[in-house]
Amino acid sequence: MMAPQAPSTPTNNAANGVPIEGVSGEANAAVAAPLRFEDLTIDDDLPLLERVVRYCRSGIALQRLVHVKMLAETADAVGANATIQSLTSLLPPLVNDPESIIRQHLASQLLPLSLTCLYNSQKVTTRSPHNERGYKLLTTTLLAHLHTLITDHDVDVRRAASDSISVLALHISPEDVPSLILSIPIRLAAKKENTTDDNGLAEELRITSANLLGELAALHDVKQVLPKLVSKYITPSLLSLCQDPNFRVRRSAVQALPRVLGGSHPQDVEQKLLPAFCQLASDDMYRVRKSVGECLVDMSRSLMLLPARMVSALSATSKEDEERELEILKEKMMELRRNTLVPVATQLLNETNKFVRHGMMQFLGPFIASFYPLERSFKNVQDAKSGESLSGILGMPQEESGSSPTSS
């Protein structure tokens, strides 16, 4: 399966001192001017847009950092047109800034800046019509900048870019999600070590990919990434990461499995995801096995939330048929949970490695509680009031009639 192509990286014109449209010649001249004593101070009398344009291109890192943090509020103040004309031209040199803290904050600022270009506002609560010019800029330029940042050497830069991409996926047209959004983690998951790779960057990128795949699979709640997309694009990539030779990548894949499971088709859950989870419970590296125990609660909850999320995919023609199919699916998920997750928990509780064993013990209580639905607890209380003892409901041995718990 070939991964969709990612957007190409835009040409870096601003780095060559090309004048920026919409700002004064004085602000543009700041690029070529030699550093003077006056440059160490900030001119607060400049209008907000002029100030950000000047100091985002400053030769002083602290000035660039302060004004990169102001990109979002500036975009919100000047609106979509001025943002597209002036602010976006500042981005190419900042994406490749030598200071990682500047690249990190730029990755965070690209999210609200993109929303301004799309909607002329950063306070978007519902799906609004796209600004066509802003949408084109997002899909051809801004996502390319985020693609560059998510391959950065610094982990904080990658994390900030990943967070921005996962939120922007909500605002991409569903038909564009595979080619523009899903292509990014898929390409990262395919990164392999080579002689030119320095300091294990390919491994770090695969870890970033696992986390982003989980975040994108979780978008099924808003029907932005449907189960068929999860099955076609996300699941194969995550399964390959589950078999990665590096244990840190496998551990990240384990942590992403509950989120991917929640957005998958039940058939994929039974035939692909749960077998991969069980295999990782017997991994050679104890840190991977420990992560399996830590994820058992989330796996249990995701399995029981899956039927409700699959209601729209049921083939029922009436309300009664839908309820019947939903109940059958619930029973199937409960059986899968009992037959798969309980043996995994038992295996980890009997581990020879104390870190794995103690880690599983910490999550044993929440894991057991995830098997006890709230509606059943109400029924059990009613049964207890009607005469059946609570110990009988829970399967505990009951005392013989006439005996007293205080008798000697």
Task: Describe the 3D structure.
The protein has 408 residues and is mainly alpha-helical. The chain is 64% helix and 0% strand. It is globular and about 70 Å long. The protein starts with 24 loop residues before the first helix and ends in a 15-residue tail after the last helix.
Could you describe the largest sheet, including whether it forms a barrel? none
SS elements, strand count: 0
Q: Structural class per helix/strand content?
A: mainly alpha
Strand content: under 5%
Distance from N terminus to C terminus (CA atoms, Å) equals: 73 Å
Number of helices: 18
As a percent range, the share of helical residues equals 55-70%
Question: What is the ordering of alpha helices and beta strands?
Answer: HHHHHHHHHHHHHHHHHH
Oligomer: single chain
Describe the global form.
globular
Low-pLDDT sequence parts: 8-18, 374-408
Radius of gyration: 27 Å
**Average of per-residue pLDDT values:** 81
